[in-house]
Amino acid sequence: MTSGTGARHFLDLDDFDTATLRSILERGNALKKAGRADKPLAGKTLAMIFEKPSTRTRVSFEVGMRQLGGDVVMLSSKEMQLGRGETVADTAKVLSRFVDVIMLRTDSEEKLLELAEHATVPVINGLTDRSHPCQIMADVLTFEEHRGPIAGKVVAWSGDGNNVAASWIHAAVRFGFELRLACPEGLKPPPGLIDWAAGQGGKVSVTGDPQAAVAGADCVVTDTWVSMNQEDGETRHNLLAPYRVDRRLMANAKSDAIFMHCLPAHRGDEVTAEVIDGPNSVVWDEAENRLHAQKGILTWCLDS
Ligand code: CP
Ligand code: NVA
C-alpha cells in the first residue's frame, strides 16, 4: 500500500498483488545469498515501536537493518509520550522528521492504520491483533526452500484462528496454495476474511476436524493457544486441546510434510515436543528467515 505521500507501507499481504510480494521475497532471498557485503540502507534509520513483547521481530529487524548498513531506534510505547496520551497522528508526524521507516507492533489495527495515514515515511506492520504479515513472508520463504514452489501445495493450520492464521489466509490467496484451517467454534477466523478469500478465488476452507484438514498436507502449521494480551487462557486450553499437533496428527499429512510454528512455542500445548523438535520441523530455519524476509521488506519499503 502506498500512502498519499508516496511512502511504501507494508501493512498487510492482502494490500499487495502477487508480483510485488514475489519481488519482496526475491530481494530477501538475494540478500540472503549475497551474505553481508551489500549496504543499500547506509544512512537510513528504522524506528521500532513495541506495545507488546518480541524476540524474533525485534532482533531480526535490528540485525537486518544494521547488516544493510542502516541504523535503528528502539522504542517501547510505555517509555514514549504515546504511552501517556500523545496521539498516534502526532507521533507519526514527528517520527517522520527523524527516521526513514517505522515499524509498529500493537494490539490495535486502527493504530497501525492511523500511523500509516499520518507518517510521511513507510510504516511496517510488526504484528497487530489482526495480522502478522512479516512472519508469513518468512514462512513462504521457508516452505519454498524446503519443498519448492508453494503454489498448488496444501498447507494445514490446526489451532486458534488468530492473527497469524489471518496472514496465512492472505498468503494462500496471493501465493496460490490451498489452506485448510481446523479451528474450534468461537476461535475460527473472521467470516469476512474467509468470504474475502473465496471472492478472490482462493482455496481456503475452515473445518472443526484437524484430521480432515491435515489429510495429505505438505505442511502443518500452528501457533500459541493464548496470544499476547489474551486473558481467557483456561477456556482456550479446553477448546484447543483437540487441535494439538502431535505425532498422530502429523501421520495424516504427507510422510515428508514439514511442521512450522512462528514461535514462541508451548510444548505440550499447541504442539508436542516430538513434533517441534523432530525431523520434519523447520522452525529454526523459519526463525532465521525472519531476518532475510525483513531485509526484503525494508529494502522494498525504502526502494533501495
Ligand atoms: N514470531 C514472532 O513474531 O516472534 P516474536 O514475538 O518473538 O517477535
Ligand atoms: N499469535 C501470537 C503470535 C506471536 C508471534 C500473538 O499474537 O501473541
From TrEMBL:
Carbamoyl phosphate binds at residues 54-57, 81, 105, 132-135, 262-263, 290. Pfam families: OTCace, OTCace_N. GO terms for biological process: citrulline biosynthetic process; L-arginine biosynthetic process via ornithine. Residues 152-300 form the Aspartate/ornithine carbamoyltransferase Asp/Orn-binding domain. Its EC number is 2.1.3.3. Keywords: Cytoplasm, Transferase. It catalyses: carbamoyl phosphate + L-ornithine = L-citrulline + phosphate + H(+). L-ornithine binds at residues 163, 223, 227-228. GO terms for molecular function: amino acid binding; ornithine carbamoyltransferase activity. Residues 8-145 form the Aspartate/ornithine carbamoyltransferase carbamoyl-P binding domain. One of its GO terms (cellular component) is cytoplasm. InterPro entries: Asp/Orn_carbamoyltranf_P-bd, Asp/Orn_carbamoylTrfase, Asp/Orn_carbamoylTrfase_sf, Asp_carbamoyltransf_Asp/Orn-bd, Orn/put_carbamltrans, OTCase_ArgI. Reversibly catalyzes the transfer of the carbamoyl group from carbamoyl phosphate (CP) to the N(epsilon) atom of ornithine (ORN) to produce L-citrulline. Belongs to the aspartate/ornithine carbamoyltransferase superfamily. OTCase family. This is Ornithine carbamoyltransferase. It comes from Skermanella aerolata. The gene is argF.
